[in-house]
Amino acid sequence: MNENELIIATENLRMDPHYHAAEIVRRRLGAQAMATSSNEDDKAAVQLLIGTWETIAALTRGVKGRDRVFERMPVCHMYQALAPAIEVFRATLPEYAAGFEKLNTEYHAWMKKKKKSAEYVTSACSGMLSARFG
Fold first, then answer.
1. pLDDT digits (tens, 9 = 90+) for 6-23
2. pLDDT at position 55
3. 3-class SS at 92?
4. Which pTM was predicted?
5. Which of 108, 69, 102 is nearest to 86 (CA)?
6. H-helix segments, 37-115
7. Which residues contact 68 (CB under 8 A, 6 or more apart)?
8. Does residue 131 sit in helix, strand or coil?
9. In 3-state terms, what secondary structure has residue 34?
10. The dihedral sign for the CA sequence 65, 71, 75, 80
């Protein structure tokens, strides 16, 4: 997969109506509340969000030249938002979302390597660089 194909694939994953519905719930309840909820629909929704980002991480692994991809993906924003739920699930599955965590680490390394300003990093991790969060 090349960089353009990856951009299209990640956009398609993030445009899924189920993903958007889950993201709306996350914004309302928060990821940790969803992961610890007695409502199985809330748990499934946060797992869908994390699973989507785990898929994005897997797709990203083999792609060289990820500058354009990283400029368009709210990696650290979504990792920060979903990290509380990831920690809940890691209590029973220690490697849960390890690919997503690695993608987040690579994203931060990319920002440092590209000498992105503190303002850029803050905006990226706050989700301000993406017109459509999630």
1. 999 999 999 999 999 999
2. 97
3. coil
4. 0.91
5. 102
6. 40-60, 67-72, 75-90, 98-113
7. 3, 4, 7
8. coil
9. helix
10. positive
Contacts of 113 (CB under 8 A, 6+ apart): none
Residues 76 and 34: beta-carbon distance below 8 Å: no
What whole-number distance in Å separates Cα of residue 20 and Cα of residue 18? 5
**How far is it, in rounded angstroms, from Cα 38 to Cα 121?**
36
Tens of pLDDT, residues 9-67? 999 999 999 999 999 999 999 999 999 999 999 999 999 999 999 999 999 998 988 89
Distances (CA, A) of 14 to 22, 23, 109: 11, 10, 23
The tokens of 121 are what?
């990093």
